[in-house]
Amino acid sequence: MRSWKFLQLDPQALREPTRQEGSQDTISHNGANLASALHRIKLEDPALLKFISRRLNKILPQIIDVQVIDDKANKQYLITVKNDDGREFTSRVLSEGTLRLLALCIMQYDHHHNGLICFEEPENGIHPFRVAAMAELLVDLSTNFGDYDGPLRQVIVNTHSPVLVGKIFEVEDTRRLRVYFSELVTQIYNLESRRIKMQATKMLFVVSPFEKEQRRLDFVDRTENRISYNRLKTTWKPRISRIWSSLYLLKMPNIVTIGYTVEGATDARFFRYIIRRTFEAIAFECPGEIEVYEPQLLERDRGAFDKGVIKAAEKASMIGLNTLCIHADADSASDADVFRDKITPLCVC
Asked: What pLDDT is recorded for position 78?
């Protein structure tokens, strides 16, 4: 466990030169000591500096060379890069995305960098066109057991980016890859004659869209806790931070998955919490084990109220939700108008 490293690369730490006195020569969790680590690599094997330059050039073609300067006058190590037009820049002026990619390139060729590497949202600061290169770098950071000379490494990445997940699946060597989706769920059960409510994380293995069995996997394989990436990504919207990793349980008893619609955008801010707490309170009074999942907002087509609700119900059915909650403002002139325009049409549906 001493070799575990949780990376949270800070652009400011990556930009800073490394003091020669009292500093370490390994990259820290926030990217500090990047220059001193590169200087050590240069002393151990100067050829590795060429490999790092070539790898970065493959991702950023305008950068043709990476060097580290031993600035004895200021007692510091400083990273510089050279562009294809001959201009040189120090790490102080490099973009956040370039610094992140450079750090990963250095880690790949640093034999002191081994063990478990945990990286949260590595796509931050990366141009969308470079996400594919980032995915390839993350895979190359892990150990290829066909190469017994390399260090032992395992990489765990947490991301909310569907683009990064898609690019990960496009990497040729997928034998080293495992992709899971997680979601927080409220579990209600009996323990020693008491009713207990707790939150837990559900994990679901995602089948690569390039595997042959993907063609026959409809939406989920409930017997083996797997889900299709091709079908799953259709429900992944920018405003949804978590994927419904528990969908394989939808047709099992005591599972509550909820969709809801609202009439106004401001209503969505509080309606989700009202729905969740209401269903948790009901489940708490029921016997047996029950799991209540976070309600998911469904966009409702504007126009006739009843037709909008039908469309929302179709969306809920398509992604496997078993409960649909409809919010309607009681702003009609009379109760009779409310029943005629909103409640009665829903009962007829």
From this structure: 94
